[in-house]
Automatic annotation (TrEMBL):
It comes from Rotaria magnacalcarata. It is an enzyme of class 6 (ligase). This is proline--tRNA ligase. One of its GO terms (molecular function) is ATP binding. GO terms for biological process: prolyl-tRNA aminoacylation. Transmembrane segments: none annotated. InterPro entries: Anticodon-bd (IPR004154), Anticodon-bd_dom_sf (IPR036621), Pro-tRNA-ligase_IIa_arc-type (IPR004499), Pro-tRNA_ligase_II_C (IPR016061), Pro-tRNA_synth_II (IPR017449).
Length: 211
């Protein structure tokens, strides 16, 4: 977490300013004792907006804002980096709520990554489908014999001339893993995905490019 004091303007008295800063420091100490990593940004030569951007760029997932209204209401303003959503929570027992917030962030990011992975994973059974999936930036579940020499052939023959990223070669696909959860049972004498391989497939294997 990063804690940013807010609402300290020229019209705010020195006493009120010190009160906001002290409240921030009390929250910082409390959260550190609860086991959180917390940093209070009390620099007075930068605006709150500059600090917001600074810590977002650094990747801090949660920003806690405390201004005059928050102090008066004994609350924290909680801003999530991954969604930009803003909410408030009471300062009392805030460590419990913030632990739930971190769990929710984890679940949201996992769900998004899982959906992205699933949408780019395809089951293919022949070399034509393999190359098509590769050109569509997918990873392929495909029948594979498991032989290192065959994997070398797949890597060599799936290298393409198309530019994947400026200045980077279009590398061939390699075996990423053999999933415990197979998409289906292989047919008897199911051939390996590479057309020059004469061995029967042993299992579906995940293939893709590594960058």
């Amino acid at each position: 977490f990063v804690i940013v004091p807010c609402g300290i303007t020229a019209s705010v008295s020195k006493e009120d300013e010190e009160g906001i800063i002290n409240t921030c420091k009390e929250v910082e100490t409390k959260l550190k004792k609860a086991g959180f990593r917390v940093y209070g940004d009390y620099r007075d030569n930068y605006t709150p907006g500059w600090k917001f951007n600074h810590w977002e760029v650094k990747g801090v997932p949660v920003r806690l804002e405390i201004g005059p209204n928050d102090k008066a209401r004994s609350q924290l303003t909680v801003v999530l980096r991954h969604t930009g959503t803003k909410s408030t929570t009471p300062m009392e027992n805030s460590e419990i709520k913030l632990r739930e917030v971190l769990d929710q962030i984890h679940n949201d990011l996992y769900k998004k990554a899982k959906q992205e992975l699933d949408s780019h994973t395809v089951v293919v059974k022949d070399w034509t489908g393999f190359l098509k999936g590769l050109d569509n930036s997918c990873i392929m579940l495909t029948p594979f014999c498991g032989e290192p020499a065959c994997e070398d052939l797949i890597k060599k023959d799936s290298a393409r001339d198309a530019v994947v990223e400026e200045g980077a070669p279009a590398m061939g696909a390699k075996g990423l893993c053999i999933p415990f959860d197979q998409p289906e049972k292989l047919a008897e004498k199911q051939p390996c995905c590479h057309p020059d391989c004469k061995n029967p497939a042993k299992y579906y294997t995940l293939f893709g490019r590594s960058y």
